[in-house]
Amino acid sequence: MRFLVLDDNPDDRLMAIRLLSHEFPELETDEVFDRAGFERALARGGYDAVVTDYMMQWTDGIQVLQLVKSQWPDCPVVLFTGSGNEEVAVEAMKAGADDYVAKSPHRMVRLPLAVRHAIERATAKRRLTQVEADLQQLTDALDVGVFRATPEGELLSCNPAFLRILGRSTLEEARAESIECLLSLPEQADKVRETERGRATAKRDLEVRRADGSRVWARVSERVRVEDGRTVVDGLVEDISERRALEEGLRTRTLELQEADQRKDEFLAMLAHELRNPLAPILNAATIVRYKTASLSDTRVRDACMIIERQVMTLSRLVDDLLDVSRVSQGKIMLHPELIDLGVAVTQAVEMVRPLVEARRQKLVVQLPPAPARVRADLTRLTQVFANLLNNAAKFTPQGGQIGITATQSGEDVVVRITDTGMGINAALLPRIFDLFTQGDVSIDRAQGGLGVGLTLVKQLVEMHGGAVTAESEGAGQGSAFTVRLPASKVEAR
């Protein structure tokens, strides 16, 4: 370290240097005893500390102190003098001295420690100044406005972003008007002193009128606190005009989509009703023709009538699914739950789909639990769920393939799993398999008479029962599995 020692008494300079050397072993010192030497020292600079006498023939310690501080504001200056009285000490400290040590036998030993502490304080001050400068640069670079104000709305300080958001050019221009409109906590200022931490916070969105008359939406975050006995408001202001516009556009778009969805549901309901009306007369007419021509030797008419009947039944089922999906979406389906045996719903579903399975020469394996698995459900709708899943499996499993349905009880749930050895489900399709009108291989689905609504209806009905349905597949040609989980009833049937 390098010190400057000023004293016109050589013995006192030597004593000061010896004392300092014990505390600073690698100390380098420049000794000054006249004005010329002091001027040369000022020109050299680079000192870590200055130790100066108070009374010298060519100057005094106060003048030395003032010259040093004017050239090196952060350099510690310690007065080491025989003029030891309170008046001198007070004058020196007022002038900016970092410490004052008398040359008395009992006090001079404090000189090294006084210099050490002065250097440490100066170092800490420089670091703090640098931190404050870095913080100020960061604050100035923020896109968020930062301000400090009184509870009455008087602006004390702010960053450039604050001025930009409010449409002001300078701090003085911003101070010309009260910013009380930004503050929501002034009424709490008197209560802040009574809070546990002496502070209160708030956040709100408001529309701010700028200097040019334009308006912006701002999000203001405030903190009222007491600092050095003074109540101040620290705050952040963020311009959220673009966000508000996006949110408003999103709300408008959401309403439009909701209206479109409602119109879609209404259209589906109307379409299903309109399609359903002619089906019964067509089916009746085909049946009558088939019976009336049964005695004819030409079987082509009878076969044609049977084809019409099968296709009408298929179309009727598809229309019913479409109508049910529309009803569920509009909240028009009401369940009639009762305590039932899950095996009953599975058995009824199997009987409904058996003709299709047999026509395609598929093997259907049914496994039911040895004891009744009780659920509280609408038997008709639950049967419809399993029938739709089995029908779906039969459609997408080639002739001679195998379909399985297994019902078990697992903890607090009952689980029904439908598996097949069919065409499987593409991995990209799995996340959307239960969405309305979602299909895999469209040509196959259309050939089998599918609209892509059956699985949507399954999911809706299962969820109405408080359950969940999932789909799995190893990929194309690997078959698929659908698992339905329903809460088991804790009430035993009587």
From TrEMBL:
UniProt-listed PROSITE patterns: HIS_KIN, PAC, PAS, RESPONSE_REGULATORY
Chain positions with 4-aspartylphosphate modification: 53
Keyword Phosphoprotein in record: yes
Keywords on record: ATP-binding, Nucleotide-binding, Phosphoprotein
Domain Histidine kinase: 270-490
Ranges where the PAS domain occurs: 131-172
Reactions listed under catalytic activity: ATP + protein L-histidine = ADP + protein N-phospho-L-histidine
Domain Response regulatory: from-to ranges: 2-118
EC number: 2.7.13.3
Superkingdom as given in the UniProt entry: Bacteria
Keyword Phosphoprotein found: yes
Top EC class for this record: transferase
Residues annotated as domain PAC: 202-252
Name this protein carries in UniProt: histidine kinase
